[in-house]
Amino acid sequence: MSMGFKERDARRALRLNNQDIGRAVDFLFEEKAKRKQKREDDIRHKIEIMELKQYGVTPLKKAVNVEKLKELVAIGFEKKLAAEALRRNENDFQKALDDLTNPETNSVIQLDIESRKRKREQRAVNARIEELVSMGFDRSRVVAVVQAGETMEQTMSRLLPEVDPLLAFDANSSGNPASEASNLNPDSVEGPSTADEERDVEMEDELARDIGKADALSDYDIEVTKEGEAIQEYLALLASTDSKEALSSC
Questions:
Q1: Are the C-beta atoms of residues 96 and 87 closer than 8 Å to each other?
Q2: CB-CB contact of 76 with 83 (8 Å)
């Protein structure tokens, strides 16, 4: 397990090799190499399938034979050209070779390849146009921009409208309280209304009438005579206190 193998794989290798550690280690490395080779073969096979899809199928709906294609490529023919020759001839190696070595037939095959390439490109362009039109862009404008052959990002940047600086300024001004305040006309600022002034005058008159009717002494808790008696009593108390202090000082 210190070699990086899982415990389960190590136990299995020991069982299959009668607990012989050396043979078990060799077995583990062989299995690891086989798994790596299988992954590489699977990747290569997937790539070949993707390439075969590009070449299309024969008139009898068969895929291009990979082994025969490799043989033609090994001879020196261009891969797409060899694949098209095999496709047209139902994977017949000799007929494909004859077509490739015949200048006239070879030229026809090349023209056919270019024609199919243009059709694929046109389908891709049409798909992009429909996608952009579905986003709400004008079809005539989209067609003109897409046919320029630019990338999707460049196409979008050309289709999107440019921002008008004046519109941007208006948008900023409309949401700015300071700008709104600066646009106010001083003459348009309203002061107190005439009705408010009339209500204030009426209220003042009413308060004056209430004050005139009120008794100035009615808010005190005691009567004036009792208040005077209390003051006289307080003054007498102060006088007696002063006389006592004078006698004690003598």
A1: no
A2: no
Distance CA 181, CA 185 (A): 9
* H-run or E-run covering 225: helix 224-249
The residue type found at 94 is Q
**Which residues of the chain form beta strands (DSSP E)?**
none
21 in Cβ contact with 14 (< 8 Å): yes
- Largest Cα span, the chain: 159
Name the pTM for this structure.
0.45
How far apart are the C-alpha atoms of 97 and 127, rounded to whole Å? 37
The pLDDT tens digits for 38-93 are: 999 899 888 878 877 888 889 998 999 989 999 999 999 999 999 999 999 999 99
d(CA 32, CA 3): 12
pLDDT in tens, 137-165: 888 888 888 888 777 788 888 888 643 44
Quick one: which of 171, 170, 145 has its CA closest to 160?
145
Its CATH architecture, for the domain 1-55, is: Orthogonal Bundle (1.10)
